[in-house]
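We treat protein structure as text, and this decision shapes the records that our systems exchange. Because each token names a local backbone shape, the row as a whole describes the fold. An entry from our holdings is shown next, in its original layout:
>
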Amino acid sequence: MRNATSILLLCLLPFACGGDSRMVPTDATDGSKQDPQPAQARPGFDATYIANAGFLMTGPEGVVLFDSLYTTPSTEWRAPTPQTLDALTMPRKPFDQVTVVVVTHNHPDHYDADTVATHMRNNTKAHLITTAQIGEDMALNIADFASFADRVHAQTPNPNESIELEVAGIAFKLMLFTHGKKSTSENLGVQFTLGGVKILHVGDSQALSEDIAAYALPGEGIDVAFFPFWMLMREWWQTTIREAIAPGTIVAMHLNPRTVVQKHIQDRGGWDAVFASWQEQFPTCVIIEEPASSVHFD
């Protein structure tokens, strides 16, 4: 189990996972056994919640920003606050350190072309990883797209296939996790490593079990996986997470604000009861409700 240590305890639930330190036995040069020694510590990474499925992930290799450059206000889903949005687009600390922007799909609670373009103009070291669909949209609608097009990596894998690329010194693996059978939105699952910790962010995946299983993710050794809440609600998706992904730690995302009344949550006893049920199914589940809260994973 990997450690998840709270940095800002603004709204990290008390049952968020901790972790056991690993002990590794080593052989002496003369063949005798030595006492177990602590495994070498990994630097790990910090994950800061922005809004919805948006996270800022900071590690020694660089800073990766997921699904945070959008403006659409919503009563159902969170959006970056005006102050955060200003810092994102200028950009100002900590967003001035972003080296890779990832936009998993083109829905307005994850992506706004003008907002992404503003960040790319102002942050000349940032690269953009996104779908071919979004790349085409930006090329068509952003007048000066050519000025940063050489830093845009817009690719969509074929079903059950992946694309591997190195961007800003970080190796990424892109997978196609559908947003639902009827959705026309291309949705990326993105795997990469920061600070020795292997990370998976699935965007708004509604992929079927067999489609996820095709990627043989248990063999990848995913340490921390970010899932939208609906993948934690249904038994068959819970089984898929355990058997077809097998992450060490789960982070729940795309959570509704508590001010939003949803019948399917009320029918389950409210958010606290839902969170407790996730903890029962996944003891390493981490839930962050408050924007600007951060967790360190190592």
